[in-house]
Amino acid sequence: MEYRQLSPETVPGFLKDISSVQQIFSDLDDLEVEEVGDGNLNFVYKVRQRKNPEQTVVIKQAVPFLRIVGESWPLSRTRMNFEIQALEHHTKYCPQHVPEIFYSSTDMSLVVMQNLNRHAVLRGEMILGKIFPKLAEHISSFLANTLFPTTDWCLTGGEKKAMVDRFINPELCKITEDFVLTNPYEDHETNVYHDEVTQADKDYLQQDSQLKVAVAEMKYAFMNHSEALLHGDLHIGSIMANEEETYVIDPEFAFFGPIGFDVGAFIGNLFLAYYAHEVRQKMLGREPFEYRNWILRTAEETWNQFQAKFEVNWVAHEQDAPSSYWNYQEGHIGFALQRQRFLRHIFEDTIGFAACKMMRRIYGLAKVADIAEIPDLKARLEVERNVMRMAKVMVQQRSSFRSIEELSALAQEISPLR
Amino acid sequence: MEYRQLSPETVPGFLKDISSVQQIFSDLDDLEVEEVGDGNLNFVYKVRQRKNPEQTVVIKQAVPFLRIVGESWPLSRTRMNFEIQALEHHTKYCPQHVPEIFYSSTDMSLVVMQNLNRHAVLRGEMILGKIFPKLAEHISSFLANTLFPTTDWCLTGGEKKAMVDRFINPELCKITEDFVLTNPYEDHETNVYHDEVTQADKDYLQQDSQLKVAVAEMKYAFMNHSEALLHGDLHIGSIMANEEETYVIDPEFAFFGPIGFDVGAFIGNLFLAYYAHEVRQKMLGREPFEYRNWILRTAEETWNQFQAKFEVNWVAHEQDAPSSYWNYQEGHIGFALQRQRFLRHIFEDTIGFAACKMMRRIYGLAKVADIAEIPDLKARLEVERNVMRMAKVMVQQRSSFRSIEELSALAQEISPLR
Q: Which distant-in-sequence residues (6+ apart) come within 8 Å of B343 by Cβ?
């Protein structure tokens, strides 16, 4: 099939020929198409049957340029190949938290999938102060169940290297390398500052040698440590949820990288929301305590449950296929020590990457609406300074935190719950 | 060209058609071919013109099986592609320590190169107690000059990832993963023990949980940290030298891995020689002091010079292409701190990998003649136990050594110079 860019007009004709789609719609001549892509990279269409709107799919198609800029910024469509491969992996290991895929085509750089029409993007919902009681449970499962199977603990060396090869994803990794792990920490033209930001604020990030070395070490880990197949962009805008269900979408940044990058992306976004809601809860006419307390408990539970589930997966794998390496009298002690030390390493990476994800959302190009859409710039600046204070301690002292509770205690020290 | 396995009889006919070889020999009808491959994997032919034996080349050809075992152990000829690519890289960045390449063919899985006929394999020479006064200077240059250019400090993300892709080398990595980093530390059928080895000796390695976790961490680093293009097998049998010149050969294990693996391979082999020469110097009728002192000083100088040269390369690269990341008043302090912390990390990896290289040569499949050919088994066992004592401290406490001199002090503590 030759690539062509779809439009609302051409979508119905395209879908008509796909047998797996024919089974979803009772009448393929009665489709309604809405272009809803609010992302920076791709086009997204919601398709419904007019008379039976519960018959619905979503189409996501990549175009060969950066959508937010236009055709002047070329970006290879191959990003959709990574998304398709990653969705297949996520579906295999954690189907309950991945939208159902009905059809995909690397030629057309598109995927036809479940329309998550009873769910909303988590970031928007959290800005509105909605609580998701199962979020930590679900995301910790997604992380433990998608990450563990692609580590060297699980795959053979040959299997792992073949997968690493298939997921070498230089274009989208470069976006992270530049916009998350480099530009915000230097005087760079892509950074965006609002009017209240002072030179001292910028220097706090850009002229602190200790901080910059710590960030450079996280960047080095991102570029060198091919531990597992990551989602690669697991912020709260890549999650759609309601009170009962949670779905992870948009894995086009997938590549083999450090496990803590995925875990840290999510937890860093929770801390961003925590600081934002010192202001936002007041904007919503509420006392800040309850919601922000939920956010911190969610961060804690996500890490603690992730750690426990990752270890459960590891122990189960060892029971299924016992390693002769641990086959001696005290071998279980060695294996337990190995797990403990490895999870300790993931914890340090998680803290370091969470901090980078937080900092880049303050002074980098891409902001988070949680904070950037606080209308009172002075209030926004206070939130941003709190984020920076916390992130700086996190990345520099990432090896001295002993538990996730110490992190949420730090968050509360910087911005008390009440 | 279709692959065919050469023999001493077919070599002259093969060479005749290669224009770069035609320029070496004044008479292509008068060649003498000697099969000299003493390696485990490949066939090696020395070719000389009978009347002008200074007109000479070496041919190394891979066969599609493990030569030491035979056709029953298939091993893909693609290993020669890695060797050819790595030789090109080494020639580009450090020609003075790489044999000259006259011709290579991935179809034929062979390379025609300089015959190092005024040089000998370093291991054999060191067994005989020969001193190589320029060894540390040359190998530290080889390491610093071949490793730095393929790090993320030097390449762009895209360039690095493309190279990583070309050097995914699962077959030969698996040999290291199994025979260096797994089997020796468990009760494995491929391990080889001589008659004096006791169960307690085996348990010392195979039932020490702390040791095994430390080794597993080195294996994890080997499998996950794609820091630079490594030689991959830099023991003293992969080096040919005389008093003036040093050449590094046989880079078929090349892949993107942790820098400390190459540095540690060489330094670990020096420590093996140090312990071997407690016995060997007596066998040679000498006092152990001078030669063993030279070995330790060579280990120290190799690390110290490597560290200094790596940093010189890094600073020079930064001066050529200044990074805006360090472009602020105190930026030079940040950059210096980054180098210091990075080299500290390489040092810890070097110690850990050196220890694994030492241990596997005692109880694994492949021995080193330095120790394994000591005829008195009781004396050999004492040497082996000393190696094990040192290696265990090294790998477990790799993060607490502050200098290479502390390592050589430990070596002397375990086996005093006199």
A: B307, B310, B311
Vertex B334: Cα angle to B331 and B337 (nearest 5): 150
pLDDT digits (tens, 9 = 90+) for A117-163: 999 999 999 999 999 999 999 999 999 999 999 999 999 999 999 99
Query: Alpha-carbon distance B138 to B145, whole Å?
Result: 10
Q: C-alpha distances in angstroms, B221 versus A393, B217, B388?
A: 27, 6, 21
Largest CA distance in chain B: 69
Chain B contacts of A161, Cβ < 8 Å? 168, 170, 173
pLDDT score for A38: 65
- List the helix and strand counts (H, then E) for chain B: 15, 12
Nearest CA in chain B to A255: B161
| A152–B223 C-beta distance less than 8 A | yes
- Cα–Cα separations (whole angstroms), residue B283 to A229, B279, B287: 55, 6, 10
Among A144, A164, A165, A140, residue whose Cα is nearest residue A152: A164
User: Distance (Å, rounded) from C-alpha B23 to C-alpha B25?
Assistant: 6
Strands (E) located in A221-329: 228-230, 239-241, 246-248, 255-257
Q: How confident is the model at residue B104 (pLDDT cuts 50, 70, 90)?
A: very high
Pairs of CB atoms within 8 A across A/B: 108
Q: Tell me the whole-structure pTM to 2 decimals.
A: 0.96
Is B213 within 8 Å of A338 when comparing Cβ atoms? yes
pLDDT at A39: 66
Q: Which residues of B touch A333 (CB under 8 A)?
A: 209
Q: With a cut of 70, which residues of chain A have pLDDT below it?
A: 38-39
Q: Do A168 and B170 touch (CB under 8 A)?
A: no
Name the residue among B241, B230, B117, B109 with its Cα closest to residue B180: B230
List all residues 6 or more positions away from A308 whose beta carbon is below 8 Å from its beta carbon: none
Q: Decide: A21 and A15 in contact? Cβ < 8 Å.
A: yes
Tell me the Cα Rg of chain A: 22
* Residue numbers in A near B326 (CB within 8 A): 212
Spatial distance between the Cα atoms of A211 and B397, rounded to a whole number of angstroms: 27
Q: Which amino acid is at B68?
A: I
Residues of chain B contacting A213 with CB distance shorter than 8 Å: 334, 337-338, 341
Distance from CA of B226 to the nearest CA of A (A): 5
Enumerate the residues of chain A whose CB falls inside 8 A of the CB of residue B217.
341
| Cα→Cα distances A109→A74, A104, B115, B118, Å | 15, 8, 53, 59
Domains and CATH numbers, chain A: 11-114 (3.30.200.20), 120-414 (3.90.1200.10)
Classify each residue of A371-382 as buried b or exposed e, where b means 16 or more C-beta atoms within 10 Å of its C-beta: beebeeeebbbb
Which structure tokens are listed for B231? 């030689």
Residues of chain A contacting B210 with CB distance shorter than 8 Å:
334, 337
Query: Contacts of residue B161 in chain A, CB cutoff 8 Å?
Result: 168, 170, 173
Q: Scanning every residue of chain A, which has its alpha carbon at the shortest distance from the alpha carbon of B259?
A: A224
In angstroms, the CA A208 to CA A211 distance is: 5
A-chain residue closest to B211, CA distance: A334
Residue B352 to residue B298: CA distance in whole angstroms: 19
The rounded distance, in Å, linking the Cα atoms of B98 and B247 is: 5
Cβ contact (<8 Å) for A225 and B220? Answer: no
pLDDT per residue over B157-181, tens digit each?
A: 999 999 999 999 999 999 999 999 9
Contact A157, B173 (CB under 8 A): yes
B170, B216, B333 ranked by CB distance to A338: nearest: B216
Compute the average pLDDT of residues B293-322: 98
- Cβ distance of A325 and B224 shorter than 8 Å: no
Inter-chain residue contact A207 with B328, CB threshold 8 Å: yes
